[in-house]
Specification:
By secondary structure, this protein is α/β, with parallel strands linked by helices. It folds into 3 domains: 197 residues, Rossmann fold, CATH 3.40.50; 82 residues, Orthogonal Bundle (N-(1-d-carboxylethyl)-l-norvaline Dehydrogenase, domain 2); 134 residues, NAD(P)-binding Rossmann-like Domain (Rossmann fold). The structure holds nicotinamide-adenine-dinucleotide. Keywords: NAD, Oxidoreductase.
């Protein structure tokens, strides 16, 4: 099958490369000339484990290519995926659909023969109807179907998630489109991956409901962590005792500095807007959004408290600035709230991140980025772990402490224990574990 992937970001590039690996012929299109040039010359514009090898192999075997011009790719495609960004609209929290609609119009102008236009971007309920209307208006003669096929991959584990998903969701009432989608996902179908066929609006809502539930689960355990600190309980043990109940499950029960990233913040907000507009507000999710926003700010206060109530003139070493490990993605990362709040309180920040420095430098000012965790800690008044990269999990704590000015360790991901830190001579603060 021939696939055109419009938008070659985290989702488009991974999906495109994986479809090529399934044996389809994929052309990835992006408006960003520098991205396309880089891909054409063998580079990968994002950090995603395993993606370089997957792209290289499929390019070499002639199934994957890149272009800035969608005309040829769309004209010959059986399926055209729209995988462009749907960020929060500044000011009101609605999903900004301008990229999706612009892509739909461009696709409509050049499509030829029966074409399935698939919305892979996360889009509010009813967007498929509008995409269909735009295509119909642009090309009244066109033979096409608009399908919703939301993506559930996680950055950092994206290839595995795409190739071994818990389920694939396809929203359409068009029989021809359903057959084509089944064929596209054939390798997964053969693996007995559940493929959930629904109406388009239902499929669009599944994606938001899933993300809102996960964001709620994280926020739930974060509030339980706060309670643990007040009543002398250990949140990790609470999470374990709760999560072993199969009806609940242990995933997404790790207390931390609040969720961030390119999806949860914007998707929870957009869902609350959809619900308000429909006259059926989601008060639970509105509260999740509020609690999570407040939490990121509260984490800076936690660091200040660990430093004795004042960080003026102090140097704080930060390990990890991306919103989670194994990505260079900085969108809505907790560090973007915590670091400026510490700077505002008078601290100087030195930071290290294994992959996020280039992106972080665009978004944070007056931060000195250094090349490793030990160098980062040298002479610092406190060390703060914001992102739990694997390489931070087994640091030589005595060595770190020996070079620091004050022995303060704030572990916002609970990757150490009170005993480990205490034995190394640190005053240790974590999340929801007041006594170890
Ligand atoms: P991204 O910002 O990394 O990539 C979007 C790309 O689309 C950019 O490279 C941009 O240049 C390109 N683009 C925009 N308009 C275009 C056009 N008209 N023609 C060609 N290219 C165009 O975004 P992303 O993180 O890949 O997210 C894409 C969508 O997938 C969003 O709706 C997001 O919510 C959803 N999603 C993301 C993830 C994730 O982990 N990042 C997971 C699931 C779903």
């Amino acid at each position: 099958m021939r696939v055109a992937m419009i938008g070659t970001g985290y989702v488009g590039l991974v999906s495109g490369a994986c479809f090529a690996d399934f044996g389809h012929e994929v052309v990835c299109v992006d408006k960003d000339a520098s991205k396309v040039e880089m891909l054409k010359s063998g580079g990968i514009p994002i950090y995603e484990p395993g993606l370089d090898l997957l792209v290289e192999r499929n390019v070499r075997e002639g199934r994957l290519s890149f272009t800035q011009d969608l005309t040829d790719a769309v004209r010959t495609a059986d399926a055209v995926f729209i995988a462009v960004g749907t960020p929060s609209r500044r000011g009101d929290g609605y999903a900004d659909l301008s990229y999706v609609y612009a892509a739909a119009k461009e696709v409509a102008e050049v499509m030829d023969g029966y074409t399935v236009v698939v919305t892979k971007s996360t889009v509010p309920v009813g967007t498929g109807d509008e995409v269909e209307r735009i295509i119909r208006e642009t090309r009244p003669d066109a033979d096409f179907a608009v399908v919703s096929n939301p993506e559930f991959l996680r950055e950092g584990a994206a290839i595995d998630d795409f190739k071994r998903p818990d389920r694939v969701v396809v929203g359409t009432n068009d029989d021809r489109a359903r057959t084509l989608m089944r064929e596209l996902y054939r390798p997964l179908f053969l693996n007995e991956t559940p493929i959930v066929f629904t109406a388009r609006r239902t499929s669009e809502l599944i994606k938001y409901a899933a993300n809102a539930f996960l964001a709620m689960k994280i926020t739930f355990i974060n509030e339980i962590a706060d309670l643990c600190e007040h009543v002398g309980a250990n949140v990790q043990e609470v999470a374990k005792g709760v999560g072993l109940d199969n009806r609940i499950g242990g995933k997404f029960l790790h207390a931390g500095p609040g969720y961030g990233g390119s999806c949860f913040p914007k998707d929870t907000l957009a869902l609350t807007r959809t619900a308000q507009d429909a006259g059926s507000p989601l008060r639970l999710i509105e509260t999740v959004v509020e609690v999570n926003d407040a939490r990121k700010r509260a984490m800076a206060d936690k660091v200040i408290a660990a430093c004795g109530g004042d960080v003026k003139g102090k140097t704080i070493a930060v390990l990890g600035v991306t919103f989670k490990p194994n990505t260079d993605d900085m969108r809505e990362a907790p560090s973007l709230e915590i670091i400026p709040a510490l700077q505002k309180a008078g601290a100087t920040i030195r930071a290290f991140d294994p992959a996020g420095t280039v992106e972080a430098e665009k978004l944070l000012s007056n931060v000195e980025f250094v090349s490793g965790p030990y160098f980062c800690a040298e002479g610092a008044d406190a060390l703060v772990i914001i992102t739990e990269w694997n390489e931070f999990r087994a640091l030589d704590l005595p060595r770190l402490k020996a070079t620091m000015k004050a022995p303060v360790l704030v572990d916002l991901r609970n990757i150490y224990t009170h005993d480990q830190a205490g034995n190394a001579g640190f005053e240790y603060t974590s999340v929801g574990r007041p006594h170890g």
